[in-house]
Structures
1.
Amino acid sequence: MEQVNIHDAKTHLSRLIERVEAGEEIVIARNGTPVARLVPYVASKQRQLGGWEGKVWLAPDWDSAEANEEIWREFWEKIEREPER
């Protein structure tokens, strides 16, 4: 992994990008101290809908008024008990 200073990186950015596209990693330094790293971009995988289907179970009343009221009440009771920071 090669290290280049910021001035050289600004001057030769196109060349550095070509090297990164070829798979190389380059460290950019300020006064000899590494501050950034140029690495090849890796696109994230497209997420598929329904990936959790059959793996997660929700109770039939998970979003009922009663469940929401209980969550609300427990949340605010906890907030009122905690000391201010």
2.
Amino acid sequence: MRTHDFDAFPVVRGGSLAGIVTKLDFMMMFGLGTHLSRRDYWNLFASNFEGVMRTGVITVRPDDTLKAAAECMIQFSIRSTPVADGSKLEGIVSRNDLIEHLIPSRNGAGSRCHR
């Protein structure tokens, strides 16, 4: 998650989108206000996503516009959303994906960002 900066992981069961696990879900489970022993952590890692994932996932369709995806993310205050054709997962799109598509990289040339 940290290396590639993923915000969410779609969970697929039997070829269909079953739920989603977000970075916040992991933070809530493993850090914020949770006091687990080392054994409990290993038990969690050995189990499945059933107890962690959210169901009723907000999705966009493959034929939706980028604007529709952005509006969905704003409306529901989410950083990424699965792209699904019915219950079949086709991919996932993040806010960063949208920004990178809308503002093509110029290989750092003319960047206005400063440290």
3.
Amino acid sequence: MCKGYLSVRVEFIIKVMKMKLNSKIGAWINKRGFKNNYVAKQLGVSENTLSRWVNNKSIPSVKTLFKLAVLLDCKTDDLYERTD
């Protein structure tokens, strides 16, 4: 297998993982009826940072993901859809 192919494949997998994670975060925030400014304040992040997670621009750290799961009263697995 060529290195270029592997690199593109890894980038694709990371992109898909980000999309699934972020789309679940937005859905759970809406499900709980929270406003983004409330969630951001509870997590100690800016609204811009939270918006970037929801809009597939970045992903939260593992520590923040755990905090988010507690806040939203769900499991981290609920926020991240496994594909295996």
